[in-house]
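Need the bound structure for adenosine-5'-triphosphate, inputs here:
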Amino acid sequence: MTAQQPESRGAAVSAPVLELDDVHVRYGGSHILQGVSFEVAATGVTALLGRNGVGKTTTLKAIIGLAPRSGRIMLRGSEIQTMATSRIVRSGIGYVPEDREVFGGLTVDENLRLVAPDQGADAPVVGRLFPDLVTRRGQRAGTLSGGQQQMVSLARVLLRENALLLVDEPTKGLAPKLVTEVADVLAEVARTRPVLLVEQNLPLVRRIADRVVVLDAGAVVHRGAAADLVADVDLTRELLGVSMRREGAA
Ligand SMILES: Nc1ncnc2c1ncn2[C@@H]1O[C@H](COP(=O)(O)OP(=O)(O)OP(=O)(O)O)[C@@H](O)[C@H]1O
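Answer from helper R.:
Posting the output first, comments after.
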């Protein structure tokens, strides 16, 4: 593991919202997570990074109870690793999966009313962060663009009072303008609640993340301030196989 870096912004002063301690995931004979331990600070964005296939999505699934896991996972000091997903969600973790999972046959408003029956697209948070969704409230979600579906998926978790949001590659496959819009929303969201974000777009990480945790082959290989990692061309190349100099802007 590389040295723990001092945090240049968003330093955590309160207890972490989430702690993973020696978390393992096995699928059949495959040992996918091999003792993952890290903390998610109670404020701001913690980005979970790593090359393809190192276990980032599996880590989010282990937290939310969608992967068979062992080890200890603590939400605000209480163990959740034996709970079913429905109970973990009720305990205050919102999950935006990579595939967005909107109900394509339902309208935008109906999708939102599944979580907030009395409010749907009328909820103040929807009007404030997703004005486009208010305009499109009667449109079937299956006919929305990828970016708009991402907004529905994000809006849905914001309609609950969550202690923590897990967001998996929200900008994957989106056009640059939509990447910027999603990044703006995430930055705004993170002002009021902590986010654990899986993201491959390093300029976006540099813009909105406070801290980074890097996985390789199912284990944590680096933790520290996001700004320090993305400023270090050699380290980003070593850990992630990419160079910021070759990346476009978020
Ligand atoms: N249900 C499953 N059964 C068997 N193997 C799985 C399962 N889910 C994931 N894996 C394997 O676990 C490894 C980690 O997958 P995971 O999706 O967590 O990686 P990732 O870091 O999120 O990758 P990417 O950046 O490409 O999305 C991969 O080798 C994948 O093939």
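Comments: Residues 1-12, 246-250 have pLDDT under 50 and may be disordered. The two ends are 28 Å apart (CA to CA).
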